[in-house]
Amino acid sequence: ISVAAKLCLLASVALLISLENHDVDGAPRRTCYLPKTPENRAAFRTIRNKYEDLRFDGVEPWQNCSEKYLQLPKMDNLTKWEKMGAMELQLNLFIPVLQNQSETTFAKATSEVLEFLLPYREDLKVCMQHRPSHHQESGYLQGFKDGLQQFNTSNTEQSPKCLEAAVGMNILSLLQEIKGISLHHHHQPRHHSNN
C-alpha cells in the first residue's frame, strides 16, 4: 500500500472518531459525568426534617395535606437510561418548587440543595445525549411518569403548600435515587451501556 493510501486511510479513521464524539450539528459532545454525592448532604436532611416537623406538629396549612399523596413512584424496575430520564423529570418538578419555597427560615439549606441539583440536572441532560438510539422505553417508565404526574396533581389540587411539603419530605429520597444512579453510572462497564 502506498504512503498516500495509508495517509488517506488514517484520515478516514480520524474522521470517523471525530464524528462519534460530535453531535449532529458538529459541536463537540460533552463527556457524561455524574457526581456521586453532594458536599452538603446535611442540607437535604434538614429540609426533610423541617417539613416533617411542620406537618406532624399540626401547623396549618401543612396539617391538611393528605398523607396518601406524599409517596413518590419507585424507580426499582427501570433500566439505567430510564432511571436517568425519570430523574430528569423528577428534578423538573422538584427544582421550581424549591426555588419558590415559602419557608424562609430554612432558605439557606434550600439554597445549598439547589447548588447541587441545578448543575446535576444539566449533567444529566448531557448524559442523556449518549443514550443509544435503539433504546426502547419499557412500560415501567410509563408507570413512573403516570405516578409522578399523579403525585404532582394530587398535591397541587389540595394546595400549592401541600406540593411544597411533599417535595420537601421526599427530598432525601431524591438524594438516595441520585446516589444510586451515579454509582450505577460510574461502575457500569462500557459494553453494557445500552441497558
UniProtKB/TrEMBL annotation:
GO cellular component terms given for this protein: extracellular space
The alphabetized list of GO BP terms reads: cell surface receptor signaling pathway via JAK-STAT; defense response to virus; positive regulation of immune response
**UniProt keyword list:** Antiviral defense, Cytokine, Secreted, Signal
Q: Which GO terms describe its molecular function?
A: cytokine activity
Instruction: Kindly give the Pfam families that the UniProt entry links to this protein.
Output: IL28A
Compartments where found: Secreted
Annotated signal sequence is 1-26
- Give the transmembrane region(s): none
The highest taxon in the source lineage is: Eukaryota
Q: Which family does it belong to?
A: Belongs to the lambda interferon family.
- Protein name, UniProt field: Uncharacterized protein
